[in-house]
Design a protein that fits this description.
Chain lengths: 209, 209
Amino acid sequence: MIKKAKIPDATIGRLSLYSRYLIEAYEKGVTTVSSQSIADATGVTPAQVRKDLAYFGEFGTRGVGYNSKELYMHIMKILGLDKRWPVAIIGAGNLGRALSQYKGFHERGFDISCIFDNDPKKIGKKLSNINIYHLDVLEEKVKEFKIELGIIAVPAQAAQEVADKLVKAGIRGIMNFAPINITVPDNIVLRRVDLSAQLEYLTYYLEEI
Amino acid sequence: MIKKAKIPDATIGRLSLYSRYLIEAYEKGVTTVSSQSIADATGVTPAQVRKDLAYFGEFGTRGVGYNSKELYMHIMKILGLDKRWPVAIIGAGNLGRALSQYKGFHERGFDISCIFDNDPKKIGKKLSNINIYHLDVLEEKVKEFKIELGIIAVPAQAAQEVADKLVKAGIRGIMNFAPINITVPDNIVLRRVDLSAQLEYLTYYLEEI
DNA sequence: TAGATTGTTAATCGATTAACAATC
DNA sequence: TAGATTGTTAATCGATTAACAATC
């Protein structure tokens, strides 16, 4: 996987969190925020906030704080969210359909351009204006819609094959929801999201209390 | 949040991963596995595998390896997955509906017992045999179904209120899909899953390459 | 026994936090 | 100026990895 040097993975996740607080603060009319207020809102330490930001530049004014709108814009730029991203979802099952309609993606700059499946019954149908295509036309549609991101929402046994096809079609980033480890070339960015594993953190901590 | 001493959070996530490989290996007839083979299958180092397991006991035989079935059972016990867990989903929107039908939960021991919403149009309906109830009867149903886990799939602005209700109803663990930090008492286990943030890791790494 | 692999210790690496000079 | 808050360094903390004795 491609990695920018020395910046902890967790920092990226926190930047995302900070940005959500910042836009909320700005919309409420709060123009200046401090590392302390960001920390309070997001559940981290003020030192952590300043350290996270320091990886990318100097965005504040000593003695004053940060301009909420400006810092928001800086973070969005850092996260690559200063543009919109067309996204393909592979798998028109329950999960794929839900993700295609999840508003949270759209709000942050992601547009689900199309959904792919290999079930003839589903091909040609639409999900809230998003077309479902056969996997055979993946490469063609990826080019047509300039898609760089793919979401794998197929069963585990099909995930690696789908990943290979995404890579072949020219996709650069993959979010994998299938409960299996897939492998991709070094120049492809991969992220696995295991919904059940998230619940398993809860059950782990709930046992033996 | 409740934490067992000294065990890294990441270890729990990896145990979940190991267990998936182990059951697959067992079902293929592979009775003995090594830390090396587990590592290869899950993308970690063999030392990491052994260290993760060592937090909980001695499960292998020196010179031989681990019995796949036995180690699987041990890990499932550690994760609290040696029993089934009734789960409530709050929010019958796109995400809530998809999660309620997501097979990955059922496979790992989670049963979605009921869905809650406050939209009168949705109350009384069913989603693949799961009833949708009004939030007003949350406490009653939590007791009836012995529910200990709740999944919040409502918009951000409603999330804290829903969390408070879940706690009041006696729920012990919460998975929050709303893009906001909610607060809960110390004895409640909370996990936030931000789907958009996962995509934002991809866009971060894809920028500036 | 020789070869293999675990369980564990010590070394290394990396992330977080505390502290404070810089400066508004 | 006095008070506040950043940006950054050094100290601390915690997780991962390497190495190896134990032992099958």
